[in-house]
Amino acid sequence: MLKRSWKTTxxxxxxxxxxxxxxAPSAQAEDGVLKIGAPLALTGGLADEGKKQKxxxxxxxxxxxxxxxxxxxxxxxxxEFVEYDYQTDGKRAGQLAEKLITDDEVDVLMAPFGSGHTxxxxxxxxxxQVPMLACxxxxxxxxDQGFKYLFGTLAPNTGMxxxxxxxxxxxxxxxxKVAVYGRDDVFPKAMAxxxxxxxxxxxxxxxxxxxxxxxxxxxxAAISAIKAAEPDWVYMTGYTQDLILGRxxxxxxxxxxxxxxxxxxxxYREFTEGLGELADGVTSSTWWHHATxxxxxxxxxxxxxxxxxxxxTAYDSDPDYVHAxxxxxxxxLVDAVERAGSTDKQAVRDALAAxxxxxxxxxxxxxxxxxxxxxxxxxxxxxxxxxxxxxxxxIADAELELVD
Amino acid sequence: MDISQIxxxxxxxxxLYACIAVGFSLVWxxxxxxxxxxxxxxxxxxxxxxxxxxxxxxxxxxxxPAVALVLxxxxxxxxxxxxxxxxxxxxxxxxxxxxxxxxILYNLMTVYFTATxxxxxxxxxxxxxxxxxxxxDRLIGMGLALLLTALLYLVMRGSSIGRAIxxxxxxxxxxxxxxxxxxxIYAITFxxxxxxxxxxxxxxAMVFPVTTNLTGSFLGKAFVICVIGGLGSVPGALVxxxxxxxxxxxxxxxxxxxxxxxxxxxxxxxxxxxxPTGLVGVKGYE
Lengths: 404, 286
Description:
The structure holds 2 protein chains of 2 kinds. Chain A is of the alpha/beta class. Chain A has 2 domains: 226 residues, 3-Layer(aba) Sandwich (Rossmann fold); 148 residues, Rossmann fold (3-Layer(aba) Sandwich). Chain A is 42% helix and 19% strand. In chain A, the strands form 4 sheets. A 6-stranded mixed β-sheet of chain A has the order 2-3-1-4-5-6. In chain A, strands 8-7-9-10 form a 4-stranded parallel β-sheet, sandwiched between helices. Chain B has a two-stranded antiparallel ribbon with strand order 1-2. Chain B is mainly α. The interface between A and B is large, with 41 and 47 residues.
């Protein structure tokens, strides 16, 4: 662990000189411009995720400004992002958020990747009463602090697991026993815990419920124990490399559960590529997948398909939920500013609180705690070589298939 | 639950672990160099195997000798060009040097290959012997791991190079006085360490996903195995690897997978206190 953190620190320092905001920060607020401040992890351990945010906002910005900007109180405003690299250092993120507010005089803030760093910046935004949108923070603990200026586009983890238990029980009525096996890490652990709780409250028997340590290179002991428990449904969480190995070992050791869920494996192309035929039938839940088909949406993109096309053309890779949620957050912000009729922070905050919007990413409706309550998270399944959406019914394009 | 299945899982895993550690143990034991590059060497071997399979359609077993040879040359050059300059310095100096070289190799692989996990998707099925299921690729991996370890053992015992390596390990100055070119032996030893890492990488590409994220895990396992089995000897790595595999397998089953790694480290700590030479190590290399 020490070794890897040294690597990321030095690599971060090396890249620091090369990184820069894609719009140079100016000292004074300008008329006719909506300024969005974003502290991003462009170097260090979360650099991959920070770069996703930067990439999608760049695409979004081009799209918005190509239309001449946004309509605010009868006037056209250009939109500008002011970004700084906080090097995956939480303390620095807080300092840069403060600089964005006091020095660069941004109108709103966008939070960086992850619940932990979002929490730090949310406290700064609240202190200065600046509206802030969090597009990659799903932990309820970020939103239960009574903050009035914080709004998040992801939905709570528990929403995912409850809808999944309900859906599987409906589609596979003989489902009785579930085995839960999760990586002992923030998000995978939260999902495994939530699923076990949802399964129990849904009258399923949890026959195996264990976590595996970060750094585990082999799952044969756990999978042998799962096999002995004869579950109808195996639910495993972890990073893609864990899930590829786990799925393969399940097949090797002869697990025959008709339902196999891996979070969030199938949401990433490398999962299906790394498993080949073994990926077939694996289900997952995700905040968003490009296979979802929302249409006639306001904002930069009029449909999920249009967003997917623009993104793949620009970056030659598939967008994931980080891209989609962050682009949708920017759409929500513009919608709120347009409804508020000004960039006044209190007016924008109030408009955000009243948001009820359908985006290419899905519906957004902030609850009392600022978290998006309007999302029914898609359940997806690998069928053949395609990713199919099983749930919610409004966007489903396939029926559940059991694993052979 | 059948105990024999847990035992079989542990032994197969242990043989693969031995394959990770044998080159690392040799370099540490002979050169007194803690080779922080070892995990990245394994992953480099994995990538070479994966690319040969993906782009050329070559089976990992066919590619293994070529990958091992490439890694041998790389290891020899690294030792000859860099490590030989400081090989007599305290262990911290060589550790820092290999750490720095590892950062370069690790980051080059991450930039050019990306950290995206890849896998050689060969379906080799499973073998069911009296209810004990053994995955085909792991069985082949175990066979190759044992074969490579046995070959290394024979080379160390039966060849003049092997005897020179053992002589240098036992007494560098005396070996030099006997006409052995110590620096060359060091480079060959480091090359063999890298060769074993490359061969392990080729075997692992069939069993584990190949990603730079795993370099640290491989290195960590190599450390634990060397301490458990004992430094500087091929049997030490084999015994240490199989012991760790079996212990992790039983601990994962009895105490839960969350604690499997902890139990392995705990055993390492106990051995450091009560038997610093490891289970079959040679005194003087603890």
